[in-house]
Specification:
The structure holds 2 protein chains of 2 kinds. Chain A is α/β, with parallel strands linked by helices. Chain A has 26 helices and 10 strands. In chain A, α3 (about 90-110) links the parallel β5 and β6 (about 110-120). In chain A, α11 (about 265-280) runs antiparallel to α22, α17 (about 365-375) packs across α18 (about 390-415) and α21 runs antiparallel to α22 (about 515-530). Chain A is elongated and about 90 Å long. The N and C termini of chain A lie far apart (about 65 Å). Chain B is an alpha+beta fold. Chain B has helices at about 25-30, 65-70; strands at about 10-15, 40-45, 50-55, 60-65, 70-75. A 5-stranded antiparallel sheet of chain B has the order 4-3-2-1-5. The radius of gyration of chain B is 11 Å and the shape is globular. At the A-B interface, α3, α7, α8, α13 and β10 of A face α1 and β4 of B. Bound molecules: guanosine-5'-diphosphate. Guanosine-5'-diphosphate binds near residues 15, 147 and 148 of chain A.
């Protein structure tokens, strides 16, 4: 199958266009070694490949370097039949700088090029019109005006690229041989001739910025937005979580009643529903978090957040650009570590990557949620707007962030001597505020849930089965005399100072594979013990069993700090190019976590 | 004077970039439109000498002091 490649600068609406062209069937491929994310989808008989957005064909950050390398490769490849370059019609000058570079590159490699002039709905709203025929002639390439959002011109565009992909030789760019002017000069003069006036385009954006970047109000808004983000993980997600929990509970009861008593019944209710089920409950929460981060990103707010955070973060040796990896680290450390590639300064990038694992990722959510449900009463304040459990959640996240900042300072001090002389500066474009489109957003949300299940599900399944088998035998169902209890008692001295008995010890130990295993493991353990109780109420079981407040808080702190995720260690190793850094962090954060848990258990 | 010194709402003309800038940064700034003769406006400044927000052509950019200090401008 031949490829059509889609390029464009960031915020030109490229992702939405890609979605509209391919529908929701997409594949994200991570190229081994370099892990540049290339999304691809089916378009007619072709594979449409979405390249990461770059501003220029000359790279500034590692992210761009890899994307550009891949683009050059694709240009050389025979499998590429056509290049589609997306332009933002409201910002013609900046889009054309990149567009003309792409055109020249395609010209060099004899590839056909089609330009999509996106966001034409906004141009029309300003009462302006762009003469695409003349623009086509001036560019020496086919240009199609369209809107990926309101779908104007999309049908014609689909037909056009279908045609162009079949006959690329008719779409080779023609460049006037006598044209001596630079890419910059051409794009300036073209945008003057065809584009909108800058002031008109930027008016709305500047008005909103006047509020959101205001010295006082901007800061207040920033904190309100972040606080609401964390509150909503709890409040919005909880009806969904209750739903999943109830459905699982009913299913478990049904299966358990319709099977004869015995080992099979025990296995299904304890290992499957108790272990695997108690982790499925948290999928809605992960999806809500992804939804909000996606909303902030697509609306254009994240760039402002990076700007607001730049100065404060620079005191800790970080960049404003560290903010976005940090924030997405709250969903999952792995994409966040990769997102750190957009940080231009190599040193700040390294420090950001090393501290991302301290952000409370969604795998910790199940653990926090369980422990909070056990320890913290569900008290409401301000008529239900705030609740104590939500606040505790916020505090746990906050502790992770503060620890990350302190570690950054430390790392910064340690690497002071080899400070880059040519440290890359902070340069950021502030995009227009836009209402996000539901389609790519929903796609992202669904993918996050699916990936979470796919990544963690098998591990959790096997761990649950393994623990159940060890906990069930040799005397079917007697946990106290099981193999697991023997192992547990053997490692108990490690966890005793933390005020935790052997069952927690076992759960912590297995959760070094992946944190969310903790809940499943405890679920299995408590399930075996209370064989005929309701499996859904793990929190109630633990409460009844008596976990002290100090030990419980210690346990939470342990999970805030410890790097218990094999996949993150592997990613760190890949991205930093050093196994020493990755395993050093694993051990370092582990020890720190243990100390904090010990302090809490001893002094609370 | 440098870009860092212009006040909020003031407009200036770019004279040129500091030639000692790293070539990659120089190139990027030029592509973003930081070229001699271009008019540039300061939209806002952030507290505690945080990044400055600028309008240049059809885009809004934010630059930190280190870099804004190395772009020469003149008032017209
Ligand atoms: N009005 C309008 N908005 C659009 C159009 N295409 C994309 N957007 C919005 O522009 C924002 C950025 O789009 P996105 O696809 O994420 O840009 P990318 O960074 O180039 O991938 C999103 O909020 C989109 O919903 C369009 O044709 N018209």
């Amino acid at each position: 199958m031949k490829n059509i490649i889609l390029v464009g600068k960031p915020n030109s609406g490229k992702s939405l266009l890609f979605n509209q062209l391919t529908g929701l069937r997409q594949k994200v491929a991570n190229f081994p070694g370099v892990t540049v994310e290339l999304k691809s989808g089916q378009f007619g008989d072709y594979r449409l490949v979405d390249f990461p957005g770059t501003y220029s064909l000359k790279s500034l950050s590692r992210d761009e370097e890899l994307a550009i390398e891949k683009l050059h490769e694709a240009m050389l490849s025979d499998a590429t039949s056509l290049v589609v370059c997306n332009l933002d019609a409201t910002r013609l000058e900046r889009s054309l700088v990149f567009g003309l570079q792409v055109r020249d590159l395609a010209h060099k490699h004899n590839k056909g090029v089609v330009f999509s002039l996106n966001m034409i709905d906004e141009v029309q709203r300003f009462g302006h019109e762009i003469d695409t025929e003349k623009l086509s002639r001036d560019l020496g390439c086919a240009v199609y005006a369209l809107s990926a959002k309101s779908l104007i011109g999309l049908h014609e565009f689909k037909l056009a690229i279908q045609d162009a992909a079949e006959h690329p030789e008719d779409f080779l760019p023609t460049i006037k041989a006598d044209d001596e002017s630079s890419v910059l000069q051409i794009s300036r003069s073209l945008s003057k001739r065809y584009g909108l006036k800058a002031d008109i385009v930027l008016k709305k954006q500047n008005r909103i910025d006047g509020f959101l970047l205001n010295n006082v109000l901007g800061g207040v808004m920033f904190f309100i937005i972040m606080f609401l983000l964390f509150q909503s993980i709890f409040t919005w997600a909880s009806p969904l979580m209750d739903g999943v929990e109830m459905a699982l509970g009913d299913m478990a009861a049904f299966v358990s009643n319709s099977l004869p008593d015995g080992i099979v019944n025990d296995f299904i209710t304890d290992a499957l529903f108790g272990g695997v089920g108690s982790f499925l409950v948290f999928v809605p929460q992960i999806m809500v978090l992804t939804f909000i981060i996606g909303l902030l990103e697509d609306s254009g707010y994240l760039a402002r957040a990076a700007l607001i955070c730049h100065k404060p973060l620079s005191y800790f040796g970080l960049s404003g650009r560290s903010f976005i990896p940090y924030l997405s680290g709250h969903a999952c450390a792995i994409p966040a570590i990769m997102a750190a590639r957009t940080i231009e300064s190599p040193r700040k990038r390294l420090i950001t990557m090393m501290t991302i694992p301290l952000m409370s990722c969604s795998a910790r959510l199940p653990v926090y949620a369980l422990l909070i449900a056990v320890l913290i009463p569900d008290t409401q304040y301000l008529g239900g707007l705030l609740n104590l459990q939500g606040i505790t959640f916020f505090i746990l996240y906050f502790i992770g962030i503060v620890t990350a900042l302190l570690v950054s300072v430390l790392l910064n001090k340690m690497t002071e001597s080899d400070k880059d002389k040519a440290d890359m500066p902070f340069i950021l474009e502030l995009p227009t505020y836009r209402l996000p489109h539901w389609k790519p957003l929903m796609h992202r949300v669904l993918t996050s849930g699916k990936q979470f299940i796919k990544r963690a599900g098998p591990v959790i399944f096997w761990v649950s089965v393994f623990i159940w088998v060890l906990g069930y035998f040799p005397e079917s169902g007697e946990l106290q005399s099981s193999y697991l209890a023997m192992i547990g008692h053997w490692i108990e001295p490690i966890f005793e100072p933390l005020g935790l008995d052997w069952r927690y010890g076992v759960a912590i130990l297995v959760s070094f594979l992946a944190r969310e295993v903790f809940v499943g493991a405890l679920g299995t353990l408590f399930g075996i013990q209370g064989a005929d109780e309701n499996i859904a109420g793990l929190a109630a079981n633990i409460q009844a069993d008596g976990l002290t407040l100090g030990a419980g808080i210690g346990l939470m702190l342990f999970y805030v700090v410890a790097l218990q995720c094999v996949a993150t260690v592997a990613t760190l190793k890949g991205e930093t190019g050093s196994g020493k850094v990755a395993w050093g962090l694993f051990v370092g954060y582990g020890l720190l976590a243990y100390c904090m848990a010990w302090l809490a258990a001893t002094f609370i | 004077m440098t870009l860092w010194e212009i006040k909020t709402k003031q407009t200036a003309l770019i004279d040129g970039l500091d030639p000692t800038l790293v070539p990659a940064v120089m190139q990027r700034l030029t592509e973003m439109g930081f070229a001699s003769g271009q008019s540039i406006q300061c939209l806002r400044r952030s507290p505690f000498k945080g990044p400055i927000v600028l309008q240049l052509g059809d885009c809004v950019y934010s630059l930190e002091q280190d870099i804004a200090d190395r772009i020469n401008v003149s008032m017209n």
